[in-house]
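User: Here's a chain of 277 residues. Predict its fold as tokens.
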Amino acid sequence: MGLKNFKPTSPARRYYSVSDFAELTKDAKPIRSLLEHQTSSGGRNHFGRITSRFRGGGHKQRYRIIDWRRDKIGVPAAVATIEYDPNRTARIALLHYVDGEKRYILAPDGMKVGDKVVSSRHADIKPGNAMPIRYIPLGTMIHNIELKKGKGGQLVRSAGAAATLMAKDGEYSQVRLPSGEVRMVHLECHATIGQVSNLDHANISLGKAGRSRWLGRRPHNRGVTMNPVDHPMGGGEGRTSGGRHPCSPWGQLSKGLKTRNNKRTDGMIVKRRGEKG
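Assistant: Prediction complete.
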């Protein structure tokens, strides 16, 4: 696992870098039964109106069905391939279970073809094994963490991410997330041991605008470059720094304004991200 850089044969190539894909299984093709057709909305809703700006285009992709729940309890599996997934930053691993079933999971860092994994409360503490948080030792790095028992992993799923199990108290554990937030998670919720694969993803430089278009990201123009009719920060003679507090086209403040609005789970947050002490 690493990065591949190029000789500066053009302005785009000068800062262009890609993953070397050394960890992937050569000539591995995705399992057709675990693929789904996927359409692109281009940021439009069912009325055809843009509700999410600066999206559209991009390469056609097919969705890989990932086993977020890890609910084959006690059935061992062998890692058959490590594959690229165009829908996420992490790598995925194809598991061959002893009963003949095949499933994709998020590949943790260090997983190799031939490794044995299992989802069980009696499993060893090694990358790829899944179990309820109740049976995971304190200080262990975990990912793919459930918020509701049996719903499947919802937290810590992107490349290089890992949470740390900090404490257990009563029926809840305290988990420190990659953002720095410390959150309470029920002890019966499942989590997977290890850190998510593809750690070097954060160091990749796209190098040119066209590569963003391949990913379905259209150009993002700033409010200060617009006219007053289009944005509160637009207009002015020559270049301006905005002249007011940064905001969205609809006046929503973009720095410092608390936007969290979920009182049901406020009590689950022990320490918010960015807090000191």
